[in-house]
Amino acid sequence: MPTSYSDLLREARSQVREVSALEADLIRQGGDALIVDVREDAEWEQGHLPGALHISKSYIEMQIEAAAPDRDRPLVLYCAGGIRSLLAGQALQALGYTDVVSMAGGFQAWKTQGLPWSAPVLLSAEQKQRYSRHLLIPEVGLEGQVRLLGSKVLFIGAGGLGSPAMLYLAAAGVGTIGIVDFDIVDLSNLQRQIVHTTERIGEKKVDSARRTILALNPEINVVGHEEMLVADNVARIIAGYDVIVDGTDTFETRYLLNDAAVAANIPVVHASVFRFEGQLTVFQPYVGPCYRCLYPTPPPPELAPGCSVAGVLGVVPGIMGMLQANETIKLLLGIGDSLAGRLLLFDALDATFSELRLRRDPACPVCSDAAVEARRAGRPLAVAAVGDGGTFALGGRGLGSPVGLASQAGLDGPAGLGSVGSIGSAS
Amino acid sequence: MSAIRIPPVLRANVGGAKQVEVEGATVGELLSGLVAAHPGLRDQLLTPDGELNRFVNVYLNDQDVRYLQNGATPVDPRDTLIILPAMAGGAGSFCGRASFRGAVGCGAASTRGAVARRARD
């Protein structure tokens, strides 16, 4: 039994192998090892090794199994000076971990060697409290939360899908929320569009949504785009956003958005709803299919007439919108498996979800390799006109007159589309 | 008999049913049987030439039949065929009631040919 601190330390050194900062860096670059920072929260926040996991020494026995279920996985522990990590290493050996090393000299030695470390990211005390339940999840944590705060998400429509999605993303701290909608709040919206309120009937949806979002989280930057999404402005409006949440209700807008988002390489989280059912997927350019891979052309107007009585159970866009928010957060954080390449179908009456496989069309005029090359060369491939014969009647709250869509439209020159798509938010 | 799932926007054409049972050994035969039994679906699913409309996708279980053997894809009685037309998506703006220009039956051969013609790989 050790009788003094020196004895304790000597015993730990005899049991846990120490590596230098340079050796630790080589192990880190090998990619197999888990680097664990065993310092306290305040120390971690001042900066740490890139890719390290933070488990305070106080919690190491309790939390290591979740982080490293494989007892034989190489673990590199470090603290500020190399003592706490030695003692933590003993604890892990006692738990059966077979390949534990401690970085001699700790984070100080690491920095002295000039090795890379992640600059401190700081949240205010209020932010730490507001986002505490995120900070507790390793997959989000401080870095993930900071990433969310720096993220920009564009909503096409502040309607039934957009309402719950933007509320949850605002709550989650997505720093910038853009909203494209030129509509005003109508009494018939309130059965499902929960970002609006009865007293705001007649108010612009963008203004109404902004008030609700800021009441929930005042630090969100809400950017209103009170305009129709058309060929002339789509590239400008979507530029700079990290993810687009699609709640469009017309084919023109959907194709317009798809083509521009693929060209700008921005993922679109797409959902649509009808009565008791909804569908959801992620159109992640060049990873999964785009909308044109699935449907090169929309139905002709006589087979997809506008109609204002289709109806939807209010919770269905609620559920699908929240699933859109979930996919958006995963994309922003780079965690989990996105729905790119999968279509999720939800049936509220059966309470079932089912899934279909979606594939990229190797001949897609928008997202195929040939299409990308053609755009680079300044000769974008022709895309199918929206509507056979070049005309297409706007559905729903559309403009009331058929609009032509030039079939030779190119992605890099969306002005050539000559089309008007309306953005409503009836869903 | 194999099950064909009817999307909500097309249910009015099959008397409101979510799913119908159709006899057939291939995807093409099932689709032909479907439009024969429910002529109101014909224009929604097929072109006047009997080809599968480009705005309609058909999945055998979870796989797009275009990436299987199209209309010639063999179907087991336990399989489910899922029809998924493009939807505008807005609950307030899109309606499944289509106007039908004709309710002509469709031969298995023409359906198979139509689907096969769209083969991509």
Give the tags.
heterodimer; A: 427 residues; alpha/beta; eight-stranded mixed sheet; five-stranded parallel sheet; 16 helices; elongated; disordered C terminus; B: 121 residues; alpha+beta; five-stranded mixed sheet; globular
Could you estimate the helical fraction of the residues of chain B in percent? Answer: 10-25%
What percentage of residues of chain A falls in helices of 4 or more residues?
25-40%
Largest Cβ-defined interface: A-B, 56 and 34 residues
Largest sheet of chain B: 5 strands, mixed
User: How much strand content do the residues of chain A show?
Assistant: 15-25%
Detailed description of the structure:
Chain A has 427 residues and is α/β, with parallel strands linked by helices. Chain A has helices at residues 5-15, 21-30, 41-45, 60-67, 84-94, 106-112, 125-130, 132-135, 141-149, 162-172, 205-216, 234-238, 251-264, 291-294, 315-333, 369-376, and strands spanning 17-19, 34-37, 53-54, 75-78, 100-103, 152-156, 176-180, 221-225, 243-246, 268-274, 277-283, 342-347, 352-357, 391-392, 403-404. In chain A, strand 6, helix 10 and strand 7 (176-180) form a beta-alpha-beta unit. In chain A, helix 1 (5-15) crosses helix 5 (84-94) and helix 10 runs parallel beside helix 15 (315-333). The model of chain A is unreliable at 387-426 (pLDDT under 50). Chain B has 3 helices and 5 strands.
Write the layout of secondary structure elements.
The complex is a heterodimer of chains A (427) and B (121).
Chain A: H1 5-15, E1 17-19, H2 21-30, E2 34-37, H3 41-45, E3 53-54, H4 60-67, E4 75-78, H5 84-94, E5 100-103, H6 106-112, H7 125-130, H8 132-135, H9 141-149, E6 152-156, H10 162-172, E7 176-180, H11 205-216, E8 221-225, H12 234-238, E9 243-246, H13 251-264, E10 268-274, E11 277-283, H14 291-294, H15 315-333, E12 342-347, E13 352-357, H16 369-376, E14 391-392, E15 403-404
Helix pairs in contact in A: 1-5, 10-11, 10-15
Chain B: E1 2-5, E2 19-22, H1 27-37, H2 42-45, E3 56-60, E4 63-64, E5 80-85, H3 108-117
Parallel strand pairs in B: 1-5
Antiparallel strand pairs in B: 1-2, 3-4, 3-5
Helix pairs in contact in B: 1-3
